[in-house]
């Protein structure tokens, strides 16, 4: 899809890093952020959205599950939650959805309403694969897993959302964020797992707050200007394969190793 995009954000309990995206989006000729759906009444995204003048609605996922009653991890009820989400979202007539620090699995209810047009930003390099072809760093602890696994740098990935979590085609990668190897080495030496976990958390937050707004802004800008094709588990920006790597805030046609 080319031309100006209409984007709805879906945001979880945390909104740190959102300021950057909204600052870019407010002045973008390529896309408009038309609304946001948050899952938590006290999400730290709410004051950020208010300051930027972005309309938002809260669909409290914890209250939804308490009314069942069921655990929020019970995916049996998630399609019903997403059907209600879709009613809120459709009021803004978006062309694309962006999951920003959204920590819940989305269902085909949303994916089929916006086929190939739901983006997520993930704190792991999804181009790094195991011998079976699955990403090495999936899930909520991707940065920690990479650091504990000996990675010397981490990257975040913008990818197309599919039913299988973190398996959608990557479209854009962040710059590399170097790991403090001396700190990690010394913490390992003395068995200070608490220090390693604290460092991994800080490293992740540094990467998120520095890069995620730029990543999403760049992905949406490219999408409005360059035809995006999805072929299997790969994407192409025009005739050039993705994912591209964001360097110095500019997306260059440089393909990461799959």
Straight-line distance between termini = 25 Å
Largest sheet: 9 strands, mixed
Mean pLDDT: 89
CATH superfamily: Formyl transferase, N-terminal domain
The ordered string of helix (H) and strand (E) elements is EHEHEHHEHEHEEEEHHEEEEE
Count, helices? 8
Give the strand order, joined by hyphens, for the main sheet: 3-2-1-4-5-7-8-13-14
What helical percentage do the residues reach?
A: 25-40%
If classified by CATH, what would the architecture be? Answer: 3-Layer(aba) Sandwich
Q: What's the oligomerization state?
A: single chain
Rg: 18 Å
Short description:
This protein has 258 residues and is of the alpha/beta class.
Describe this structure in words.
The protein is an alpha/beta fold and 258 residues long. It has a single domain (5-252), classed as Rossmann fold, CATH 3.40.50.170. The chain contains eight helices and 14 strands. It has helices at 18-26, 45-52, 61-66, 78-90, 108-113, 142-148, 181-189, 193-225; strands spanning 5-11, 31-38, 56-58, 96-100, 118-122, 153-154, 157-160, 170-173, 177-178, 228-231, 234-237, 240-241, 244-247, 250-252. The protein has a nine-stranded mixed sheet with strand order 3-2-1-4-5-7-8-13-14, sandwiched between helices. Strands 10-11-12 form a three-stranded antiparallel sheet, with no helix packed on it. A two-stranded antiparallel sheet has the order 6-9. Strand 1, helix 1 (18-26) and strand 2 (31-38) form a beta-alpha-beta unit. Helix 1 (18-26) packs parallel to helix 8 (193-225), helix 6 crosses helix 8 and helix 7 (181-189) packs antiparallel against helix 8. The longest helix is centred in the last third of the chain and has 33 residues, at 193-225.
């Amino acid at each position: 899809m080319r031309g100006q995009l209409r984007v709805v954000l879906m945001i979880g309990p945390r909104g740190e890093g959102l300021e950057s995206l909204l600052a870019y989006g407010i002045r973008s000729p390529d896309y408009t952020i038309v609304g946001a759906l948050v899952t938590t009444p006290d999400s730290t995204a709410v004051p950020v959205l208010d300051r930027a003048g972005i309309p938002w609605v809260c669909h409290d996922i914890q209250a939804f599950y308490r009314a069942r009653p069921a655990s929020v991890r019970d995916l049996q009820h998630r399609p019903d939650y997403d059907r209600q989400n879709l009613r809120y979202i459709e009021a803004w007539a978006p062309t694309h959805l962006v999951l920003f620090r959204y920590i819940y699995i989305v269902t085909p209810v949303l994916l089929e309403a916006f086929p190939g047009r739901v983006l997520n930003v993930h704190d792991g390099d999804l181009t790094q694969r195991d011998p079976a072809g699955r990403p090495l760093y999936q899930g909520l602890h991707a940065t920690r897993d990479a650091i504990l696994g000996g990675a010397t740098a981490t990257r975040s990935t913008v990818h197309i959302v599919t039913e299988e979590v973190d398996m959608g085609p990557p479209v854009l990668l962040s710059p590399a964020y170097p790991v403090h190897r001396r700190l990690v080495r010394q913490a390992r030496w003395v068995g200070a797992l608490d220090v390693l976990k604290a460092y991994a958390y800080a490293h992740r937050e540094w990467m998120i707050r520095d890069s995620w707004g730029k990543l999403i802004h760049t992905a949406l800008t490219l999408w409005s200007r360059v035809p995006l094709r999805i072929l299997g588990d790969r994407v192409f920006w025009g005739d050039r394969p993705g994912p591209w790597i964001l360097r110095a805030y500019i997306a260059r046609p440089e393909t990461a190793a799959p």
